[in-house]
Fold:
Amino acid sequence: MEVETSSSSTASLVDKAVVPGDIVLDLTSMSDQTIRLGAGLRQYSDVLSVVKAGKLKFKKPNKYWVESSQKRYAPSVEDTVLGIVVDARADNFLVDIKGPTLAFLPVLAFEGGTRRNIPKFEIGTLLYVRVVKANSCMNPELSCTDASGKAAEFGSLKEGYMFDTSTGLARMLLSSPTCPILEALGRKLSYEIAVGLNGRVWVNASSPSTVILVSNAIMRSEFLSDVQQKILVEKLMQRVQG
Amino acid sequence: MEQRLANTWHMTINEKKFIESALSKNIRVDGRSPVDYRQLTIKFGREDGSSEVQLGETHVIGLVSGQIVQPYRDRPNEGTLAIFTEFSPMADPAFEPGRPGEFAIELGRLIDRGLRESRAVDMESLCIVAGKSVWAIRVDLHILDNGGNLIDTANIAALAALLTYRKPECTLGGENGQDVVVHDPEVREPLPLIIHHMPVAVTFAFFNEGDAMVIDPTHKEEAIMGGRMTATLNSNGDVCAVQKAGGDGVSLSVITHCLRLAALKAVDITSKIKNAVDSYNTARALRKVKRHNALVAPDITVPDSVMKGNQIGQLAEHQAQKFKEESTKTFDTETVVGIPKETVLFNKKNINFIRKDSDSFIGGPSNWDPYSQSIPPTFVRSSQIFPGLHSSS
Structure:
């Protein structure tokens, strides 16, 4: 009974807020289709139900996932994240990526990495890395190369300022077309930015005041609409110039 | 080892260098100037003596409770004041559950010193019978979120909670006129504590061997600061306590400069606390009026004789008289029949205890709890169930 009512309202659930227990899809009527599930969804016999609060997303032809915003990060394969080197071992660097456990970065996971040219990272170095293995019961594994073995911008970030935000804001900053706040700031100022899906953002610019302005504007933009973000940037600019 | 590394908060070299270089140009990472305080929000709970203070991201709850105990032998006519702190691991992964850390003890002692040794709370007015029973006031400070500068926030929370706490009124009565009678708050309005002045803690952080100084450091600034100084002052500019525990040395001129700044901030914070307490008291008074109306329902207070007569005119007359009574606030225990008079109850055990103690008083607190009769066990906070989690100061 419950399944029938939910299947009739499935279309309306996409892009809506969902909570654990909501039924997204009834699989009995679609036996010969393949569906790909992302974070926050689980199959219980004939129904797909939500296990995490957030917004249900759907991408053609068959991808479903739940997007939410949180302070902690659940590692998943192919995410690009910002990590902090916490300890160096013989085979691995231990890297904090805001996950439940520390992640391992093998000392050979660099472009052209061999036993002879192991990079030296001080404790506290900020790294831009890619998650290559993320299994429960195991520490996640990172890599400083892209899938073809090239360095591709991965590696340590020098200077600048790093701050923590939520995973939702990080995803908003990475969305395309370019997030309005970054675009509006970019028209007036020049800055470098690196966003990790684990909710860490690194900003660098020629002067410290620009870095502080950009980072505070980003931190305050999480719950603003596109227009509000543009107004925020304009106000900040007037204050700086005035 | 690995688990400990995963649980602690890490700071990158980038942040450390950036904050230091920005500070050398008098810029702070949150856009404040070095002498600016963060936004202060003071809220109160429904119960008297509970406060919730937010200073930027830092979040502290203060709770005040009172108990009647026997006084210390050397101070027979003074009550006691004790500060307890609880650092939850939810506030900061660096706080370990169970035993209080070094910082938890320092914070508790610092607030204790500011409030008690400057005699901010009148201790003698807490005395009920000299040498026999006094009020023991307990302040519990719960850290909910650590965004830096816990000392100032916890101090404001303690002050705000103390200013709104009301102790039930006590008189002497009973058979021999020597027993302590605790009046129900419904019957007699509880009394606020007497607070002579408000010592406000203002914290400074020093960087680069005393070159740069900021007020109200955030937790990132606290992680890289070279030294810290807390000055506790009241709005008159009297210094109540100064704490400078190790770290970078600073010159005398810097300290006097800090004290002058702290005096200005103390005036500012005191007025903010006073405004918040005033608006709480107004809201409380309004609530009181409503509660009395609801309590005095006609069928409870109208005496039997009127009900038997069953005359509407008489009933209306009685109502009118009752409203007059309410407006003049002459609430006598005799007219309010509906309210249980458990206030004058004093169980046998305690009477015996008081009679006995006049000749064999051994000191130490009594275990008599004035609330045990009227408060259900669910109200007993977890802090009292697990005393091991607290740092006594």
Remarks:
- Residues 163 and 206 of chain A are 18 Å apart (CA to CA).
- The interface with chain B takes residues 84, 86-87, 94, 96, 100-102, 122, 124-126, 157-163, 202, 208-209, 211-213, 215-216 of chain A (CB under 8 Å).
